[in-house]
Design a protein that fits this description.
five-stranded antiparallel β-sheet, 2 helices, 7 strands
Length: about 110
């Protein structure tokens, strides 16, 4: 049991260590556009991280999440930009992400 607890703590730290957040808020601080990115091939688990960030921004609770009550999840993909690595052109990769809008409950 002790080993499993240590493994869970290590795994959690590893999974969330490369996450970056971007938050844009309105002037009242009650509506936020949140983007969570991770340099991974999959967006798996980013929805949970996104929700935790949304909850931290809404001390009185969440009134609604848009669109459709959950963030949009995107796996790593090819962007429209081109990059050259060692003389070889390839598409610039976009990191896996979760994106959405949260509206906080009033006081």
């Amino acid at each position: 049991m002790r080993f499993a607890s240590c493994l869970l703590i290590f795994f959690s730290g590893f999974v969330f260590s490369d996450v970056t957040y971007t938050v844009n808020s309105n002037e009242f601080g009650d509506t936020h556009i949140i983007t969570v990115k991770r340099d991974s091939d999959t967006a798996e688990g980013l929805d949970v991280i996104w929700i935790k960030k949304a909850e931290s921004l809404c001390p009185n609770g969440i009134a609604r999440i848009e669109p459709e009550s959950q963030p949009i999840l995107k796996n790593k993909a090819c962007s429209d930009a081109i990059e050259v690595i060692n003389g070889i052109q390839r598409c610039e990769e976009m990191p896996a992400s979760a994106f959405g809008k949260v509206v906080c409950k009033g006081t």
